Amino acid sequence: MQLNSGKENISIGPPHSSGNSSSRTNAVPSRFLNLTNDFEFAGWGSIFHLTLAPEDICQGEVERKFFREQQVLGQFTASALAANDILGGVFYTLPSVVAVAGVYSPISLFVAALTLFLWRPVMEEMASALPISGASYTYLLNVSTKSVALLGAALLLLDFSATAVVSAATAASYLAGEVSLPFPVYVGAGLVFVLFTFVSLSGLRESSRVATGVLVMHAAVMLMLTVASVIAWGRGGTAQLSSNWSLGHVGLSPAAIARQVFNGVCIGMLGLTGFECAPAYTAKMKQNCYPKVLRNLHLSALVLNSGMMLLVVALLPLDVVGSGNNILSLLAQRVAGRWLRIIVVVDAVVVLCAGVLTGILSACELFVKLSCDRVIPRVFLATMPVTGAPYVTVFSFIAFSALIYASTGADLIVVSQMFTMVWLAVMALFPISLILLRFSRPRLPRASQCSLFVVAGAIGVTVTVVGGNVAIDPTIAGWFALYLTILLILFYLSQNKVTMLRWIYWAYDQLPWLHRLRLTKGWGDGLIRCMRSLRRQEVCLLVKTDEINNLFNMILYVRHNEETSCLKIVHFHSGDIPSEMEANAKSKPILIPFFLDEAFPEITVDLMLVKGRFDPKNLAALAHHLKIPRSLMFMSSPGPNFQYPVAELGTRIISI
Questions:
Q1: CB-based burial, 473-492: b 16+ in 10 Å, e otherwise
Q2: Residues 105-157 pLDDT 10s
Q3: How far is CA 352 from the centre of its chain?
Q4: Which residues lie below 8 Å from residue 332, measured CB to CB, with a gap of 6+?
Q5: How deeply is 40 buried, as exposed, middle or buried, from its count of CB atoms within 10 A (0-12, 13-18, 19+)?
Q6: Which domains does the chain carry?
Q7: Quick check: 140 and 149 in contact, CB under 8 A?
Q8: CA distance linking residue 347 with residue 345, whole number of Å
Q9: What's the Rg (C-alpha) of the chain?
Q10: What is the DSSP string of 445-492?
């Protein structure tokens, strides 16, 4: 490492060494019988004394200011991004619920919406403890292992993709139900994808304005339809409702009625999709907006879904409701005539298209997190020069969504079934993450705290509804398992590239005749160079004390979760350095780097003593100086007296 002014370097090695040796004697037999295993030893570490330069401090201040400028979404714009999805669900949820719940559909939808009272306090506590974009993936990454977090990432990606596909395909289907399209429905869905690809490339701020405009239009149309329906109900009386009620429960036992209501609840949960998208862009919201956003989404879904279903049952014959997909357009025709039906159809198409935007923007935040954590290539961080939109991410997500849609034969029913299971799995991650947070990171400050009974209730509801959906149609579980398995395999291979190469190196070692062929003779050296290159990315451990057991546990986390051979242990100080970190090589060994190098030969452990205060500005300055992203800087959980928010630090929490 090149030394600048203000930084002092001392090389360390074994006690008998006077310099920085690149090799050492190892009594442990090698697993490679014919090839070298010297690459398994990363080399001896060093100790550094660093004083941050003024240009680094200036850059740290710029990054801190940039973080605050990213909080651009207010209560209503943030609500609009997810509300177009959750409120657009009224167009594709009502027909499915009526098919299984019949006249009891309003009750089922009302009960389904009530379950969100369990999730709201859970999600508020998680966001107050970890106000970081990326939702369940970042939650699990900070309270568990990276492998568990990748399960959450796979579920989120499936959820966002299903959101986009179902919204686009339903918009095209809704339009095809009203007019004769000159092309198939799947072509219409593709056109929706193309349109909102360009909208999302305009940037987050512009996208939120589009979403807000769509939401205002949708609210106005739903209000218009509600007023017209209430007036028609008042004029016509309850004759239609009484007729539907009598027809709907003829010959049904109480157990059969309860079963219908329960099935309606299970299917009706699909009308709440979009609620899980709000945590995906928490860091973009202004302070104290998140609880209000959840409240807005919940109450609007509670009123709209069950209220509209009640008006449908009160004003339309049950056989008509059961035979039509465009239920709300039929209702508009009944209460006001053709003009309102046309408005409702236009509204349906527009708001469902905006659901595609929700999926794209949520997926962009997830891809950025995965790229910063080296799960996927850093090319996904590339942005457009004017709008700052991550164009590689947008195009990749659209291609992935199109692939899912095409693999099902452009079957909207199959995608919707998979969507239900994925959404329930994603919602289950919130209470599970909170349990892990309380167990693994109990000291982490948070503004709110909910009862453990609420957490258990959310998990119980999820398990019950998943079982109900599988009982209704067992093929749901098959599609869900198929797509999830494929994504998990891809994430595992991407996360364990060095491990895969080591297996290839071992297989090459087992075939000595390959070593003598001219074509394959240099494969071993090439594999070693590739593995060293992949492990060259440095990571940092930010430590406060010199407790060796804590350092061991943190390094074990790095070894199990990150493919790296370069680790820097960083301690900020104002002159009072812990005794085990003291660089006094003449009188005693430098205990921490030496012992850790001995314990972890596959990792070069450097000790860096940075003069200055541990705060977001200095941390950003250090990241700029070392060229190490803060997402690869790990620390212990801050306590309740810590004065900076975790999101502003930008680091990962890996221990209690």
A1: eeebeebbeebbeebbeebe
A2: 999 999 999 999 999 999 999 988 888 877 788 899 999 988 899 999 999 89
A3: 22
A4: 225, 228, 340, 341, 343, 344
A5: middle
A6: 7-63+535-655 (3.40.50), 72-464+471-493 (1.20.1740.10), 499-526 (no CATH)
A7: yes
A8: 5
A9: 29
A10: --S----HHHHHHHHHHHHHHHHHHHHH-THHHHHHHHHHHHHHHHHH
Distance, CA of 107 to CA of 265 (rounded, Å): 8
Tell me the Ramachandran region of residue 265: left when phi exceeds 0, alpha when psi lies from -120 to 50, beta otherwise.
alpha
d(CA 242, CA 526): 78
Q: CA 536, 632, 13: angle at the middle one, nearest 5?
A: 50
Our measurement of the distance from residue 225's CA atom to the centroid of its chain's CA atoms, rounded to an integer in Å, reads: 36
Instruction: State both tokens at 188.
Output: 């219409």
Within 13 Å and on the Cβ side, how many CA atoms surround 159?
A: 34
Is residue 20 classed exposed, middle or buried when 0-12, 13-18 and 19+ CB atoms within 10 A define those classes?
Answer: middle
Is 459 in contact with 467 (CB distance < 8 Å)? no
* Beta bridge partner(s), residue 639: none
Q: Characterize the bridge pairing of strands 538-542 and 46-51.
A: unpaired
Cβ atoms 83, 643 nearer than 8 A: no
Cβ proximity of 586 and 557 under 8 Å: no
Residue type, 344: V
Collapsing DSSP to helix, strand or coil, 131 comes out as coil
**Structure-token pair, residue 523:** 């494969």
* Structural contact between residues 85 and 277, judged by C-beta atoms closer than 8 angstroms: yes
Sequential DSSP letters for 591-617: HHHHHHHHH-TTSEEEEEEEES--SHH
For residue 312, what is the enclosing H or E element? helix 290-315
C-alpha dist (Å) from residue 378 to 70, 381, 390, 477: 20, 6, 11, 33
Question: What is the C-alpha to C-alpha distance for residues 566 and 555, in angstroms, rounded to an integer?
Answer: 11
Residue 309: name the closest of 350, 252, 271, 353 by CA.
271
**What count of Cα atoms within 13 Å lies in the side-chain half-sphere of residue 573?**
21
Per DSSP, the three-state class of 580 is: helix
Buried b (16+ CB within 10 A) or exposed e, 293-318: bbebbbebbbebbbbbbbbbbbbbeb
Q: 109, 271 in Cβ contact below 8 A? A: yes
3-state secondary structure of 65: helix
Spatial contact of 262 and 412, defined as CB atoms under 8 Å apart: no
Closest CA to 300 of 35, 79, 34, 614: 79
Quickly count: other Cβ atoms within 10 Å of residue 401's Cβ: 25
Q: Using CA atoms of 533, 535, 537, 538 in order, give the dihedral in degrees to the nearest 10.
A: -140
Q: Which residue has the tokens 């701020």?
A: 205
Successive 10-residue mean pLDDT values, the chain, 656 residues: 45 46 58 74 77 82 72 76 80 83 90 92 89 83 90 90 86 79 82 81 64 84 92 88 82 85 89 82 80 89 90 86 77 89 88 81 83 83 76 87 85 79 90 92 85 92 90 82 88 86 86 76 82 86 82 88 88 74 44 69 85 86 87 87 81 87
- Segment 469-480, tens digit of pLDDT: 888 888 878 888
